[in-house]
C-alpha cells in the first residue's frame, strides 16, 4: 500500500505560492494577515 502524500514542489508552489495568493482578494488578505502577525515566511 502506498503512502497518501507524494510531495511535489511545483504543485505546492502553484497551489499555495505567492503568485496564487496575489491573484485573489482573499489570498491578498491572507498575505496581509500573515505580514501583520509578523510571519518569517509569508508564502511558499
Could you describe the 3D structure shown?
This protein is mainly α. It has a domain at 18-44. It has helices at 9-16, 18-23, 25-37.
What's this model, at a glance?
The chain is built from 3 helices and no strands. With 44 residues, it is mostly helical.
List the helices and strands and how they pair.
Elements lengths: L8 H8 L1 H6 L1 H13 L7
Low-confidence stretches: none
Query: So what's the oligomer here?
Result: single chain
Helix content: 55-70%
What is the typical, i.e. mean, pLDDT?
95
- Total strands: the figure is 0
> Given the helix and strand composition, which structural class is it?
mainly alpha
Order of H and E elements: HHH
Number of helices: 3
Biggest sheet character: none
> What's the Cα radius of gyration?
13 Å
Shape: elongated
* Measured distance between first and last alpha carbons: 30 Å
Features:
single chain, mainly alpha, 44 residues, 3 helices
Amino acid at each position: 500500500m502506498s503512502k497518501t502524500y507524494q510531495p511535489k514542489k511545483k504543485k505546492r508552489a502553484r497551489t499555495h505560492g505567492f503568485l496564487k495568493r496575489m491573484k485573489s482578494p482573499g489570498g491578498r488578505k491572507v498575505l496581509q494577515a500573515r505580514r501583520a502577525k509578523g510571519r518569517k515566511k509569508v508564502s511558499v
